[in-house]
Amino acid sequence: MPTENDLTDKIKGLSNVGMAMSFLRFTSGGKSQKILHRLKYRNKPEIAEKLGKLYAQDLIEANFKNCWDLIVPVPLHPVKLLRRGYNQSEQFAKGLSEGLEVDYENALERKKFTETQTKKSRLQRMENVEDVFQISAEHSVANLRILLVDDVITTGATLCSCANVLLANGAKTVDLASIAAGK
């Protein structure tokens, strides 16, 4: 259930989001990790888009068809985007957008470059993404029901930091979704 699961438990107290859900369970050394590594480090953005389309079908079958007005991907810093050539979260959002028939927009931007989160503790991750995100100048999220998406939910720090910015800028609700999530 997207409103009562280990992901929602993980983010309690960090942000006032509604649902938290994930398409895959992340397992170190498992298939989900291999998929994510191909996506992020082997120049395979089409994987995220395909996963977004597949997940959209699951969400439709679970009666989540008309829950959101906008899908917003977690942004990469421009330096990281230039290095990788694409934002894997945006590609996932693109697939979800097509499948759910809901627009997606890059309504958030990173105002600071941050180090990778992979080796950080939960507290270090929260501190690392504090005051990192802002609403893009050309976007408004006021009164919108938003599905905020990322590639992986580990501690939830990044998504909660983004969700807090969206809520502070008038989003009606924010739900979270990812390609994969760890325990």
UniProtKB/TrEMBL annotation:
Residues spanning the membrane: none
PANTHER family hit by this protein: DNA UTILIZATION PROTEIN YHGH (PTHR47505)
Gene3D superfamilies named among the record's database cross-references: 3.40.50.2020
Species this chain originates from: Algoriphagus iocasae
Phosphoribosyltransferase domain residues: 89-181
SUPFAM superfamilies documented for this protein: PRTase-like
UniProt superkingdom: Bacteria
Protein name: ComF family protein
CDD domains, A to Z: PRTases_typeI
Alphabetized Pfam families for the sequence: Pribosyltran (PF00156)
InterPro entries: ComF/GntX_DNA_util-trans, PRTase-like, PRTase_dom
Similarity annotation: Belongs to the ComF/GntX family.
